Amino acid sequence: MPHHPATLTSLPGYLRGLAGLGLRPALIEQHLYRSQSYSYAELMGKAYALQRELGRRGVRAGDRIMIWGSSGAGWAAAFYGCVLAGAVVVPLDSGFSAGLAARVQQQTEAVLLCSDHEPLAGVPRLSFEQIVALPPEAAPEAAPEPGPETLLEIVFTSGATADPKGVMITHGNLLANLRPISGEIEKYLARARPFLPLRFLHLIPLSHLFGQVMGLLIPPLLESAVVYPESQAPAQWAELIRRYRASVMVAVPQQLTLFSQWAAGAADTSLEEAAAISKGRNIPWRWWRWRKLHRRLGWKMWAFVVGGASLATQLEDFWNGLGYAVVQGYGLTETAPAITITHPFKARRGAVGRALAGVETRIGADGEILVRGGNVSPGYYHNPEATAEAFAGGWLHTGDLGRLDEEGNLTFLGRKKEVIVTSAGLNVYPDDVERALAQQPAIEECAAVEDQRQGAAQVHAVVVLRAGEAAGALAAAVAAANAQLEPHQRISAASVWPQPHLPRTTSTRKLQRLAIARWVNQGEPAAPESPADGEGGGWKQFLERRWGLAPSRLQPQARLDSDLGLSSLDRVELWSWLEAHTPGGLDEAGLTLAQTVAEVDALLAPAERAAAAAAAGAAPQRPVAIPAEEKRWPQHPGLRRFRALSYYGLVFPVLRTAVTRVRVEGREHLQGLERPVLLVANHQSLLDVPVILRALPRAWRPWLAPAMGAEPYLGAFDPHASPWRRWRDRWRLGSVRLFFNGYLLSPLGAVAASLRHSGHLADQGYCPLIFPEGARTPDGRVHKFRPGIGVFAASLRLPIVPIRIEGLFEVLADRDRRPHPGPARVRFGPALHFPTESAEEITAKLQAWFMMGR
To answer: In terms of domains, do 423 and 569 share one?
Structure first.
């Protein structure tokens, strides 16, 4: 291993050692539809380049630099470069508003912004794109090593119970966390060798200290790569775990809750059943009993690392019961960030672990957790009053309640300010109440807060009901929860939260119980939110804006295809928008089958809207379900070589019987152009793909991947089709996949999966071919492009090569049963680049290019 605990004398020295890992993968950005991988040598080369760039800009040691944006290579290179340059990092969560970012900049006097957001007035900006584009450089001459007291970061948190404060973190604070973890890794290194390198699926923002430690600092100790997914859909996390053979998922409890719901469905069990069935069984038995789930996630997956908030014991039991280790930590931003960590092989149920080496913990007289040690922050930036209050007597007063057992294991009991003190003087911890309530099938989310309206404190539950549950389910759920609680803990009253989700903090997804309590006690309105809502309203408003659909047409029984006129590419655009604006991700299988407005509402809406959709009486016939995942076997290198030979021995000779001559223009536009590109062509005939193959340069032909409508092949997936039709359509589909590397794109299929498959093809060097009209021309002319082509272009981030086809309508029109032999013309346009244009602008510009050929 390149690093030993004894070598962790300084953070810059540790980072300089990462370049020694060379071409080993360090970081994988998994966007919704494309991926980008960076080696340690490449990532550190960009960090060194940024270090020099900062020097050229006059940035000095101690200057503040803000990093504000999404996790990925740009964030990582910015952080490494700032540390190497001696700058003080000011990380901001990507979800913070521009107003908050501006206030932080003014308070810290930051001299530079590294960001994928819009610039702030008066602040120089380096975009993440510019940072990643920097040519890698060699390590400059090392600067003097910073002392342990040197300021490293100022972290502004969005706490669940307090206004944001700037926490000062020194080099010594972070090293105090890193050294004991590194020491534990060394102990188990020999036994871990057969499983290395590991890969981490990382879901926590890098603006959070726990995210930095788990995403930027610990994986190199294991020579491991970190995968940063853009998607917030649990099904996509599972697919990425399997695809990248990840061993560890790093998440906050709310994310693990979402993933647990997916896993319970995949394993055909429930949280309670999995724990009960597996109780007392050994790990091999659990892996065999739940092999269906282990197969879905891949056999290298074995652990979850959870932090940022308290984890429900039910979730811990569930994953342990399935045969997975759950490692959780307890800490604060003020402790950089860990205080305790559970041992993956010695965890105690319900506890958050023992204190790290060098960290002291004790429980105050009022039950508060007190901490001191090298990991504890020196205080709050420019806030001596808050510092004096939180760090009184030489101990950090965490504001959390807990207890220590005889072996030093810490159990977290809740926030001190959130404890409900009953009129009898008894303490009620909200976590205990919420744990009992969350076990009820009707409850999606819940929070327990103090109700002060009757003069005496009472326990009030605020819940979000699962979709389809009637309001009356709340009373039954409360009664069942109360049966599990002690008399002083029982819920006196309950309310349904008026939004689809309870309010949570931006990065760690902690419940904002104070905001919920104000809603209960003072009638403060809940923050406006609706399912799949982004800027400008929800999904129906998006339909109105994008396709000009009148609200009167969006009736519950209206079908997306026949009534609203959404084509396959339109569905691609709708799915992309929904995936980007739906908290917690989407049920892709459900959306694939959703064919009416009511069905989409039921998937996205809370209980009352789901009930309204059901009351509308919409009960459409279920369509044929096409598998969400496309076949990968057509991309096998052997089949690619087979296709290259078949073109000359079979495809082109047969093509000549219909197309007597193919006139090709603009082929020079492909010279010097690197694959992959997105090919976009007008749709004239069934012969379009063979003719495009004939027109392409020889080296490009095996790398074509045309997207196809699913309608001609529906019998292959219809269990009610006749045996003859099933065999015929399967043979057709298999032939198209074998000879042309085609893949399905259909309003009846999983359009998001088709878009992801396009990205997967591009990552391998293939060139997807899209026909943006959505159907073959009825009259030989180019017709209006569907907006989905703009989504494809913007999502895949590929140069676009337009291809105009002429003459094939006369050879074999859609209505013809036999060809009329004749010539065809294929014209390649210059590669088009759209780095900043919207999907609508891309569609309009592509349409304009094709119209110029009239």
So the answer is: no
**Are the C-beta atoms of 31 and 18 separated by less than 8 Å?**
no
Predicted confidence at residue 31, as pLDDT, reads: 87
Site of tokens 């359009």:
751
Q: Hey, CA dihedral for 644, 646, 651, 653, is it positive or negative?
A: positive
Q: How much is the pLDDT for 452?
A: 84
732 by Cβ neighbours in 10 Å (0-12 / 13-18 / 19+) ranks as middle
- Residue 332 forms part of a structural domain: no
d(CA 278, CA 275): 5
How far is the CA of 108 from the CAs of 151, 223, 663, in angstroms? Answer: 13, 35, 64
Task: Judge whether 849 and 802 are in contact, CB under 8 Å.
Answer: yes
Q: Which residues contact 598 (CB under 8 A, 6 or more apart)?
A: 556, 557, 613, 614, 616, 618
pTM, two decimals, is 0.79
Helix (H, G, I), strand (E, B) or coil at 100: helix
Angle at which helix 568-581 crosses helix 539-547, to 10 degrees, equals 140
R_g (Cα) of the chain, nearest Å:
29
CATH of the domain at 431: 3.30.300.30
Q: Which residue has the tokens 């030989």?
A: 780
Report how far residue 463's alpha carbon sits from residue 51's, in angstroms, rounded to the nearest whole number. 49
C-alpha angle 349-352-358 in degrees, rounded to nearest 5: 135
- In a shared domain, residues 469 and 516: yes
Q: In angstroms, rounded to a whole number, what is the distance separating the alpha carbons of residues 627 and 403?
A: 50
Rounded to an integer, what distance in angstroms lies between the CA atom of residue 592 and that of residue 615? 22
Query: Within this chain, do residues 819 and 735 fall inside the same structural domain, yes or no?
Result: yes
605 and 644 assigned to the same domain: no
Sheet containing strand 151-156, strands side by side: 125-127, 112-115, 64-68, 88-92, 151-156, 166-170, 379-380
DSSP 219: G
Instruction: Indicate the residue among 465, 487, 522 that finishes a domain.
Output: 522
* Structural domain harbouring 590: 539-615
The torsion angles phi and psi of 517, rounded to 5 degrees, stand at -65, -40
Rounded to 10 degrees, the C-alpha dihedral 112/116/121/123 comes to: 10
473 within domain boundaries:
yes
Query: Does residue 696 sit within a domain?
Result: yes
Query: Does residue 231 contact residue 32 with C-beta atoms inside 8 Å?
Result: yes
- The structure tokens listed for 776 are 């073959």
Statement to judge: residues 487 and 588 lie in one domain: no
> 35 lies in a domain?
no
Same domain, 458 and 590: no
Number of domains into which the chain is organized = 3
Put the strands of the sheet holding 396-404 in their side by side order. 359-363, 368-373, 396-404, 410-415
Residues 687 and 830 in one domain: yes
Looking at 558, 587, 615, which one is the last position of a domain? 615
**Are residues 439 and 490 located together in one domain of the fold?**
yes
Give me the average pLDDT of each 10-residue run along the chain (854 residues). Answer: 59 94 95 91 97 96 96 97 97 86 93 94 95 94 90 79 77 95 83 81 94 95 93 85 95 88 88 89 93 94 89 89 93 94 82 93 94 96 93 93 92 85 78 91 92 84 88 92 91 90 78 88 64 52 75 83 69 64 53 70 54 43 64 93 94 95 96 94 96 96 92 87 94 95 69 79 95 91 85 86 96 91 96 85 91 68
- CATH classification at residue 596: 1.10.1200
CATH code of the domain in which 683 resides: 3.40.1130.10
Given a contact cutoff of 8 angstroms between Cβ atoms, the answer to whether 85 and 108 are in contact is: no
* DSSP structural state of residue 649: I
Do the bridges between strand 338-341 and strand 359-363 make them parallel or antiparallel, or are there none, so unpaired? Answer: unpaired
**pLDDT for residue 491:** 95
d(CA 778, CA 781): 8
CA distances from 336 to 330, 333, 373, 378, 683 (A): 11, 5, 11, 11, 58
